[in-house]
Write a structure and sequence with these properties.
The protein has helices spanning 11-21, 31-43, 54-64, 82-89, 108-117, 137-147, 201-210, 245-255, 258-275, 303-315, 331-334, 344-352, 364-377; strands spanning 2-3, 47-51, 72-75, 93-96, 124-126, 150-154, 177-181, 194-198, 215-216, 233-234, 281-282, 295-299, 318-319, 353-356. By secondary structure, the chain is an alpha/beta fold. A seven-stranded mixed beta sheet has the order 2-8-7-6-5-3-4, with helices on both faces. The chain is globular and about 75 Å long.
Length: 378
C-alpha cells in the first residue's frame, strides 16, 4: 500500500536521537531550547514554545490569550477536530466560518459577513492553513484590527510555507500565536510534537509555564522571596505538555533539511498537475509558496462517485484519504446544536475530496502508479 503520507528519516536523524540517548538528558534538556531557537529563527519569530503535540499548543495558546468559560472561538469547519476542541477545553463556545472552495481555507469575506451579523463576536479566530497553503492573512489581519479579536494560526500543515508577501509562516506579524505540528505525516516530524511561536513575551512566558504544570522558577513571578535555589511555585493550573529532548533532537535534524523536503514536495505537486491535467477532477490551485502537506483533488460527479473512486484506489493499493469530515458534522458538535447545511462549502468540499499520496520519499514511479490508479477508478 502506498500511504498518503509518511515520515522521512535519515541516518543523521538516527544519530541525533542516539546522541541524546547517550547523554544525561532524555526529557527536558538542551535539545528542547535548541529546537525552539532554530525554528523561531527560521520563521523570524522572537519566541517559541515546544510542546508534546499541536493540540497541546492550541490549548495553551487559548489559555495564554485568556479564553475562559463563556468565551467565543471561531474556526474553519474544514480541519481536524483539534482546531475547535482547544476552545472546548477552556469551556468556551465554538462556531465556524465557511471556506473558500477554491483553496479549502477559511473565507475572509464570509468571516466579515458573519462578524457583521453576530450578536457576540469572537474573542479568538483560528484560521487553518489547509494542506500547507496559508490563509489570506492580510485580509484576516485587517478584520482582526477592525473587530477586535485575536488570532491563532493553525499552521499544522504549513511548516516552511510563505505568505503572499513572501514572509515565512510563523513570523507572527498578523497573529498572536502560530502553531505547528510535527506528526509523522507532516512536513517535518518529532514523532509527536508541536510548537507555538509568538512575538509577545508575555504570551511566551505564559505558554512556557502552562506546558509545565503552571510552575515557575523565576523569582519575579513568585509570591515570596525564594528560600533557596531548589524553590519553585505553581502559580496557575498547568499541564504536562512538554516535549522531550529525544523529540527535539529529531526535530533539529529534520529542520536542517526542511528546504530540501519542501522542494521535493513541490516537485511532486508539479508532476501531479501534469499527470492529472486531463482527468475529471478539480486539482489544487497552484501555489509555489505552499508547504504542500496534502494534495487534495475533488472528484466531479457527487459523493457517491467519490466513494467509488476511494474504494477502487484502496483496492489498487493506493492509500488515499479524505481531508476533512467537517467538524460541525461530528456527533459531539451536532450535540451542541450544529447541523448539516450550515456550512455548505465545507460540506461540498468533503463530498468530493480525495487526498492523494504526497511525501518526499514517494518515487516518480510510485506517483505514476497513483495517477494510473486514479485514472482507472474514474
Amino acid at each position: 500500500m502506498i500511504p498518503y503520507g509518511r515520515q522521512n528519516i535519515t541516518a543523521d536523524d538516527v544519530a541525533a536521537v542516539t546522541e541524546v540517548l547517550r547523554s544525561d538528558f532524555l526529557t527536558q534538556g538542551p535539545a528542547v531550547p535548541r529546537f525552539e531557537a532554530a525554528l523561531a529563527a527560521y520563521c523570524g519569530a522572537p519566541h517559541a514554545t515546544a510542546l508534546n503535540s499541536a493540540t497541546s499548543a492550541l490549548h495553551v495558546a487559548c489559555l495564554a490569550l485568556g479564553l475562559k468559560p463563556g468565551g467565543r472561538l471561531w474556526t474553519s469547519p474544514n480541519t481536524f477536530v483539534a482546531s475547535a476542541n482547544c476552545a472546548r477545553y477552556c469551556g468556551a463556545h465554538v462556531d465556524f466560518v465557511d471556506i473558500d472552495r477554491a483553496t479549502g481555507n477559511l473565507d475572509p469575506q464570509k468571516l466579515e459577513d458573519k462578524l457583521k451579523r453576530a450578536r457576540r463576536r469572537p474573542d479568538i479566530v483560528v484560521p487553518v492553513h489547509f494542506a500547507g497553503r496559508p490563509c489570506d492573512m492580510a485580509a484576516l489581519g485587517t478584520l482582526s484590527a477592525k473587530y477586535g479579536f485575536r488570532m491563532i494560526e493553525d499552521a499544522s500543515h504549513a511548516v516552511g510555507a510563505r505568505y503572499a508577501d513572501g514572509r515565512v509562516v510563523g513570523d507572527g506579524a498578523r497573529s498572536a500565536v502560530t502553531v505547528f505540528s510535527f506528526h509523522p505525516v507532516k512536513i517535518i516530524t518529532t514523532g509527536e510534537g508541536g510548537m507555538a511561536l509568538t512575538r509577545e513575551s508575555a504570551l511566551h512566558a505564559s505558554m512556557q509555564r502552562l506546558r509545565t504544570h503552571g510552575i515557575t522558577r523565576d523569582p519575579a513571578d513568585m509570591t515570596v522571596t525564594p528560600p533557596g535555589p531548589w524553590y519553585y511555585e505553581q502559580v496557575e493550573l498547568g499541564y504536562n505538555y512538554r516535549m522531550t529532548d529525544l523529540q527535539a533532537a529529531l526535530g533539529c535534524a529534520q529542520l536542517a533539511r526542511l528546504d530540501t523536503l519542501l522542494a521535493r514536495r513541490r516537485a511532486l505537486v508539479r508532476r501531479y498537475d501534469g499527470l492529472l491535467a486531463d482527468l475529471p477532477v478539480h486539482r489544487p490551485v497552484p501555489d509555489d509558496a505552499s508547504a504542500w502537506h496534502l494534495y487534495v483533488v475533488r472528484v466531479k460527479g457527487g459523493k457517491a462517485r467519490r466513494a467509488s473512486v476511494y474504494r477502487k484506489m484502496r483496492e489498487a493499493g493506493i492509500g488515499v484519504n479524505v481531508h476533512y469530515i467537517p467538524v460541525h458534522l461530528q456527533p459531539y458538535y451536532k450535540a451542541l446544536g450544529f447541523r448539516a447545511g450550515q456550512f455548505p462549502e465545507a460540506e461540498a468540499w468533503y463530498d468530493a475530496a480525495i487526498t492523494l499520496p504526497l511525501y518526499p520519499d514517494l518515487s516518480d514511479a510510485q506517483q505514476d502508479d497513483v495517477a494510473a490508479a486514479l485514472r482507472n477508478a474514474l
